């Protein structure tokens, strides 16, 4: 196989695997009866990861427009799963915090995600999964380093 075929194959495998994984996650969340949409579930997981982060940082991390994340946050706030507070370092910005009510739901979302990853990595040795993760992190970091 020549270098061009390898590049095309790698590009396809990364992008298509991400698409298939996202579709499978969405299906699992919809079928789990968690009373949040897959997008809201992703938003909650990202709020947890950012730990009291700003709305703009959340949108950037998720790769979506601030107005889109704002709509997700409105629904999560109406369900008492998050709250917004003014950022003490920037009065124009809002911090997003999880409420105690969100913790059980996040555990259930993480369970679905763990099951999905177990399915996706079925038959792959733990050592190979660890190598795969390191390689993807390197690819990710290399691409971010090139981003202006």
Write the layout of secondary structure elements.
Elements: H1 3-31, H2 38-50, H3 55-62, H4 66-78, E1 82-87, E2 90-98, H5 102-120, H6 126-146
Antiparallel strand pairs: 1-2
Helix pairs in contact: 1-5, 2-3, 2-4, 2-5, 3-4
Q: Overview of this structure, please?
A:
The structure is a single chain. With 148 residues, the chain is mostly helical. It is built from six helices and two strands. A hairpin with a 2-residue loop joins strand 1 (82-87) and strand 2. Helix 1 (3-31) crosses helix 5 (102-120), helix 2 (38-50) crosses helix 5 (102-120) and helix 3 (55-62) packs across helix 4. The longest helix is centred in the first third of the chain and has 29 residues, at 3-31. The protein is globular and about 55 Å long. The chain starts with a helix and ends with a helix. The mean pLDDT is 93.
Radius of gyration: 18 Å
Oligomeric category = single chain
Strand tally is 2
Largest sheet: 2 strands, antiparallel
Q: What is the residue-averaged pLDDT? A: 93
Taking pLDDT < 50 over at least 5 consecutive residues as the criterion, the unreliable ranges are none
Percent helix: 55-70%
The geometry reads as: globular
The total of helices stands at: 6
Strand ordering within the main sheet: 1-2
Task: Please report which band the strand proportion falls in: under 5%, 5-15%, 15-25%, 25-35%, 35-45% or over 45%.
Answer: 5-15%
């Amino acid at each position: 196989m020549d270098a061009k075929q390898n590049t095309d194959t790698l590009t396809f495998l990364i992008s298509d695997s991400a698409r298939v994984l996202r579709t499978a996650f969405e299906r699992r969340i919809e079928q789990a009866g968690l009373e949040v949409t897959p997008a809201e579930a992703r938003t909650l997981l990202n709020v947890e990861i950012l730990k009291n982060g700003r709305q703009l940082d959340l949108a950037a991390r998720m790769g979506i427009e601030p107005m889109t994340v704002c709509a997700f946050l409105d629904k999560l706030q109406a369900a008492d799963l998050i709250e917004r507070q003014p950022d003490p370092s920037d009065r124009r910005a809002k911090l997003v915090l999880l409420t105690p009510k969100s913790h059980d739901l996040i555990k259930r979302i993480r369970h679905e995600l763990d099951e999905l990853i177990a399915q996706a990595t079925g038959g792959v040795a733990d050592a190979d999964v660890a190598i795969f993760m390191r390689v993807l992190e390197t690819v990710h970091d290399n691409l971010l380093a090139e981003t202006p």
